[in-house]
Amino acid sequence: MTGPLLVPLVGAADTLLEVARSPLGLLGVTLGGYQAGRWLQRRARDHAAVQPVLVAIVVAGLAITLLDVDYADYRSATELIAFWLGPATVALAIPLHSQADRLRGFVVPLLVAVALGAAVSITSAVFLARWLGAGETLEKTLSTKAATTPVAIGLTESLGGIPSLAAVFAISIGIFSAIVGPATLNLLRIRDRRARGLAMGAVSHGVGASRMLREHETEGAFAGLAMGLSALAISLLLPLLALWLF
Fold this sequence. Notes:
By secondary structure, the protein is mainly alpha-helical.
């Protein structure tokens, strides 16, 4: 009797696995992981250390490992999420528009800070990697770390680095900065909300901008602005600095 009873159970398990490996199933796993991260963040009273993006990455990584799904198939299945990242980034201009009056007397310091920050980010990454004995390919890959992920991938590819690794660096640094950034700014007694947002957006990209929007609308607005300006500054400066660095 046991054998006939196991047949439908095995069939049901195979069906569930197929559903989980389907594009809809993988999309559900990703969104579910992010929602789990948001739930944990609320339970932690919005603590900076609990980042929904990090939770979603861990959940999705475990899922595709256990389900034996290739990353290329997972990436294709979740293309819808990647598509909406563009409009979501553009939407960061909405809070900036409402804070436009806060730009008075701050435009020149902002542009100088972004340009200098981009130059320091590029050169420090390259020289640190060189000092630690990394090869030129890894130096080129690390040089784009402060740009948003799509920009970092494109720049790394043009330099001859490793685009997939550049994406890992950009995302990892963004999450790490979003976790430690607010506490670091508090420790340094930086109170100006424009400066706080500018610093976070320049180093932690969309994750940091999202974090700062929860802190204060002004901080979130300037974080979104810094994210875009930093990506532009790195795109313009890196080809010039590459002539000297590599």
